[in-house]
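Fold this complex.
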Amino acid sequence: MSETLVETPRELDEAVRRSDEHALRYRGDFPILDRRIHGKPLVYLDNSATSQKPRVVLDALDDYYTRLNANVHRGLHTLSEEATNAYEGARERVARFINAPARNLVFVRNTTEGINLVATAWGRKNVRAGDEIVLSVMEHHSNIVPWQMLAKETGAVIRYFDIRDDGSLDMEQADRLISEKTRIVALAHMSNVLGTVNPIDDIVTRARQASALVFLDAAQSVPHMPVDVQRLDCDFFAFSGHKMCGPTGIGGLYGREELLEAMDPYMGGGSMIDEVRLDGFTCADIPEKFEAGTPNIAHAIVFGDVVDYLEAVGMEQIHTHERALTDYMVGRLEEIDGLTVYGHAPGRGGAVSFNLEDMHPSDLSTVLDRQGVAIRAGHHCAQPLMRRLGTPYGATARASVYFYNTSEEIDVMIAAIHKARNLFRA
Ligand code: C6P
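Structure:
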């Protein structure tokens, strides 16, 4: 994937025109985009928080409960067998989407659960006092707190990559941070605040030299670009269905086979066992070992339809579309006097944070909402990064795009920001 999409304003115009054409082909799939908010057409630019859902996904959910509902891996009756086949079929489809073997994909609730699972089940067994865990200052709380909990329990030390002025990871610190003491390097594949896409190849190379593992928090990358865990060569990889057109409460955790096999279970209960006696138990094979209790059957099955839908739209096309729209958005935002955009790393993704003079981002978001424009305001679950950036109020406004967004919607947001500023200056 190239870092520079366009060189000239004319090339940008052309790329934006193509991306609008792409969006218009798929917008009709999303019923919610026809809504009006405060009498204005909804402009949904909060996709990094959660994406909207297409009709095929809504229908698949309805179809599951109408036709197929039964518990999985338990019954011998037809309905249970059909539900089990659909559940395991979905695992295969989702695994294929990230180019993983199905048995290496654990269904979890979300990225957060995937990280907690590894920090607990791998961490307790493999991390000791004095060992080091390497994170970065741009991490989401979900990729900080579980490691802090592990460090507190084990006496391990956490070290953090800083960022450069453009919001990219400061790789010059790699030699100092990643050493033979490092057990794991856990990083966002893409930042939810800066849009930075981290240099995973470099990180994996450095980690391998130190015999450390690499965990990728892929919550913001999987929805927006083609990913291949084998090419990335990471050890663990977590993502959330709800940010990629799927329902909430379902996500995926990929783990390398020998690591998953060596790990103890995360939770105990039904489904994760081979045999239980009064004096102990033996575990089921992976991935069931990590799926105790009745899983989120309906949403796991629908996750299979989600990845089929995204494949039909085209992950490469989604990525190209969003790159053009992001370049366009950043350019238009920076035309606004007194507005600061955070994050200018080459090849950045479509989560764009900004602040307007000394206006509180929550006020900005409220004014935009009155114009039908949904953005997020706050710390974006990245308080250490807010401190590092020195943002006023420890917060930013953030607009984040998906493949159904158009440049016209960006124009509506820009007009709304001007309106907000005039209102606050008056
Ligand atoms: N970020 C945002 O508005 P969950 O909540 O488990 O699906 O995803 C957690 C998570 C982990 N890592 C990154 C990089 C993320 O962006 C998120 C979720 C949302 O930015 C909600 S806070």
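Residues 78-97 form the longest helix (20 residues).
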